[in-house]
Amino acid sequence: MNNQNLASADILIVDDVPENIRLLSTMLMDFGFRVRKSINGKMALMAVKALKPDLILLDINMQGINGYQVCEALKNNPDTSEIPIIFVSAINQIEDKIKAFQVGGVDYITKPFQVEEVMARIHNQLKIQNLQRDLQLQNQQLKATQKQLAATQVELIQKEKMVALNQLVAGIFHELNNPINFISGNLDPAYQYVEDIIELINLYRQEYPHPSPQILARSEKLELDFILEDLQKLIRSLKTGIKRIDQIMLALRIFSRTNEAEMKSIDLHECLNSVLHLIRHRLQGNNHNIEIKVIQQKAENLPFITCYAGLINQVIMNLINNAIDSLQSADSQAHESDWVPTIWITTEQVNPNRVAIRIRDNGMGIAPELQSRLFDPFFTTKTVGQGMGLGLATSYQIVVEKHNGQLILSSIPGEGAEFRVELPIAPIPQRSVS
User: Fold this and answer.
1) How far apart are CA 156 and CA 161, in angstroms?
2) Residue 114, pLDDT above cutoff 90
């Protein structure tokens, strides 16, 4: 209702004296208002429930439910609490006027009244109501804009981080690829050379079982037998180390999806393996961190999904890291003595069109009053310096807004938390973001 439509507002008159109702309704209709009438408090409450008026003119002294009780009932109902109520009464005692304002009235007109006074007060309240509605609308628009700006800021930060990560990965591959290939390619012939030399030395020992004193002394000083035995172990360890580096490089390449198209078909189990490979150091116990057990329950024949592969890897990384942070910050004294910090990772096909990943921990859980804010940008329960509150907000954007999936939190304080990610198997149009 704008200022031009104030005169056509819907006004409910509540009075148990028919003459008063006729007088007020005639006066209001002459000014263009739409008027409804109720002769008692019960009928007034029914009329408001059927159709909310823009303003109510309410008498105080009525049989049955009086005006104060009607006003209190309307103000206690969230659906009708915003309706302005002007009391119109012959009572002129100051205590009655105070009570009228205490129960929620916005104005008070004393009978007998002047037409100009009634019209002025009605127009004033309707203008105030109109301004309040405009303000509420502007506040809603401002909140939506603020939310969009925060989401855009998160997206820009994450894009910058991913660009930096891709550049780092590309640099690592460029700098390490050649030396790793060189070492890996030469370890096998080096191992063969060592075996040949050892075989030759053993033949010399068979042919010349009595070496000279100088050779014997030198062999004892060098501990030749130990060297011959340990040299083969050393090269085998080098081969194991190179294999480990290859696995890390592969996991990093899968995680960042370097040089691959944004939208592609991926194996979620491969993504999980690569992430767990990269953060294995956080799961292993040391002087600073507790050891965390990971239990995987992978669905057989889980279909590949078509998605932004690098972003889905980022979501998996964020959620597992979040579970690790929760377990590491949990007070072990609050658990049973046999408490084993554990993360359960489960994959399943929900229906023919969707798959799900569930990541659950047995930490301290999340308080109910925090759960509704957990996906808000820059909101974090961590201490200063441990996080910016972007991980879960970014994950929500990726899953819900970019993939039309679902990211659902369920948590019982003291028993842990679970994040469930549902993703469509085939891409569908993105939701518009207002």
Assistant:
1) 9
2) no
Window from 46-55, 109-118, 160-169, 285-294 with minimum mean pLDDT: 160-169
Is residue 326 located within the same domain as residue 247?
Answer: no
Which pLDDT tens digit goes with each residue over 283-292? 887 766 788 9
Domain shared by 162 and 33, yes or no: no
CB 48 within 8 Å of CB 83: yes
Residue 327 has pLDDT above 50, yes or no: yes
What average pLDDT is seen over the chain?
A: 82
Q: Are 113 and 403 in contact (CB under 8 A)?
A: no
> CA distances (Å), 286 to each of 196, 232, 281, 290, 353, in order?
42, 31, 9, 7, 43
pLDDT in tens, 126-159: 888 888 888 888 888 888 887 777 767 666 666 6
Task: pLDDT band for 215, please (50, 70, 90 cuts).
Answer: confident
Residues 272, 255 share a domain: no
What strands, in cross-sheet order, belong to the sheet with 342-351?
293-297, 342-351, 354-361, 416-424, 406-412
Q: Are residues 427 and 283 in the same domain?
A: yes
Of 259, 283, 312, which marks where a domain is finished? Answer: 259
Q: Looking at the 3D structure of the chain, how many domains does it have?
A: 3
**Position 379 pLDDT exceeds 60:** no
317 and 427 part of one domain = yes
Residue 278, CA distances (Å) to 160, 166, 243, 244 in order: 21, 15, 15, 11
CA 206 to chain centre: 73
Assign 240 to helix, strand or coil. Answer: helix
What is the total residue count of the chain?
Answer: 434
Helices (H), 259-359: 268-278, 280-283, 309-329
Provide DSSP, 163-209: HHHHHHHHHHHHHHHHHHHHHHHHHHHHHHHHHHHHHHHHHHHHH-S
**Full domain range(s) for residue 294:** 263-434
Residue 125 inside a domain? The answer is no
Residues 194 and 314 in one domain: no
pLDDT on residue 259 = 47
Based on the fold, state whether residues 418 and 320 are members of the same structural domain.
yes
User: Per the structure block, which two tokens stand in for 370?
Assistant: 């925090």
Please report, for the domain that includes residue 28, its CATH number: 3.40.50.2300
Which of 93, 113, 133 is a domain's end point?
113
Q: Which helix (H) or strand (E) holds 107?
A: strand 107-110
